[in-house]
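Sample A.
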Amino acid sequence: MSGQQIGKEGLLSKLIDLDINADTIDHPAVFTVEEAIPHVAHLDGMFAKNLFMKDKKKKLWLLCAPHNADVKLNDLCKMVKASGSLRFADESVLLEKLGLRQGAVTLFGLINDTNKDVTLILDSRFTENVYPKIHFHPMVNSATTGITSEDLKKFIEHTGHKPIIVKLD
């Protein structure tokens, strides 16, 4: 990406500009969903699991699903017709494309993917108003931001990404 990448404050400002009602809480830095749950369990809604991956042809993928979804990468690969298998992408690619570090992977990073190099895979429950709020890291792993499904759709539309919707267990 050329130019300055958007961080936490820039993201929160952009959410306001987009008329997205976001609730953000700060907490200690966490590197896994399991570490995050004690800090977000009191929040109304679902904490998201976000996986940044690449396939055999180095196409980049970002999966966003409920934190408790059973993600089988082989099955997911077939669902989205990825080339070969899906595996985690290097942190250098994550930083270059989404402006994120390991432990802070978030759908909000798509705001930095102006070239649309990353394909978003979104669990269908995140588009169907199943949860009052969906919680993501706001570009850093020391905070959590919650938005509604409708606002999630608005944010994705703003980034210009066309998600592949999947049904996970």
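Sample B.
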Amino acid sequence: MDSSSFVKEFISLWVRDPQAHKEDFWHTYIDYEICLHTNSMCFQKKTSCVRRRYSEFVWLRQRLQDNALLIELPKLPPGNPFFNFTSEFQVNQRMLGLQEFLQKVLETALLLSDSRLHLFLQSQLSIAKMDACSQGQTHYTVAQAIHRCPCDVRFPIEEQGHEEDCKTFWDSDCDSTTSSGLGNSVGPSTPVEEDSAHEFQTIISEAELFSSLSTSPRNQQHVHS
């Protein structure tokens, strides 16, 4: 068979668009948008976009470790009880660390079979519901939870050469709860080898990084992960 008929498998991942959310007067946390675009048969949805906070990344790593004891998992950026969401440097460094963590996880074939990884990346379920669903304790399956998650956004890689389509999209009535200005970021890409089984493209805009942060009082606040 002609080798040109084979389509190279790829998984593109973005962690971007940090947003601050107030839990109460004193406590604030930041979540991040995780966008995935792939042609891999391991994923039921080829494009998805969800938001996750740091504590959910911690949960994911622990569950993956429980299911793959012989694999040395990549590390997360360290937790910081005094994390300052108004610090561009701190937020940017954590965001880059979270993206690197997920990229390395997706490079490990064994981990791609863990249903909790797929629920984390492609559903809007809480930690408790992801645990229950992965154990078959919900009335819906993993596949149903994933397909319930809306994804009506256009990815940065898809927007090149489609400016008019993008304008039409953003002018339309879209009920997606996960879109946050996708495609407005341009930045350095993470270098990878050309023959890698998974290609990851990092598109990050430091200039626009904090434009999406919700307005919060800048007085002393304790930020939860």
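B remarks: Helices lie at 54-67, 88-106, 115-122, 127-134, 142-148, 156-159, 163-171. The first helix runs from residue 54 to 67.
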